Amino acid sequence: MSPRSARLARLSRSVTFSACHRLHSKSLSDEENLKLFGKCNNPNGHGHNYKVVVTVRGEIDPVSGMVMNLTDLKEYMQEAIMEPLDHKNLDKDVPYFSEVVSTTENVAVFIWDSLQRLLPQGILYKVEVHETEQNVVVYKGEETIVK
């Protein structure tokens, strides 16, 4: 028998959480915030039912037939996404957002960083955050663009 080459696959799982936030930057005046963020700068905030799709990538294990056990992925997502974010005011209940504007882009970065601490190294491929059906952010761990 000849050895089989490793097969790579991507595995995705989704969760939905509800949270509120206010788009407001401490670096801008109240007038500038209102101009930039419009109704999303409402002082009382507004809410979303966010859908998050997490994708991992790796070799299909020849014994288990899996890239990763979905039960493990579910538990990691519970700890990294649901526990800190579900039914929370992002700006007031999540310390990360006390200094970072709670845009969907930054929510995706927060989730990525949280999952990176839990998942086996190098397996996390992509985090998609659907703020609405029309607004989706995809983050793959890129930190900066060299200019």
Written account of the structure:
- The protein has 147 residues and is an alpha+beta fold.
- It has one domain: 6-pyruvoyl tetrahydropterin synthase/QueD (Tetrahydropterin Synthase, Chain A), CATH 3.30.479.10.
- Helix content is 28%, strand content 28%.
- The protein has a five-stranded mixed sheet.
- Strand 4 and strand 5 form a beta hairpin.
- The protein starts with 7 loop residues before the first strand and ends in an 8-residue tail after the last strand.
- The mean pLDDT is 94.
From the structure above, extract its key features.
single chain, 147 residues, alpha+beta, Tetrahydropterin Synthase, Chain A, 5 strands
Brief write-up:
With 147 residues, the protein is α+β, with helices and mostly antiparallel strands. The chain has helices at residues 30-37, 70-85, 90-93, 104-116, and strands at residues 8-21, 46-59, 88-89, 124-130, 136-139. Helix content is 28%, strand content 28%.
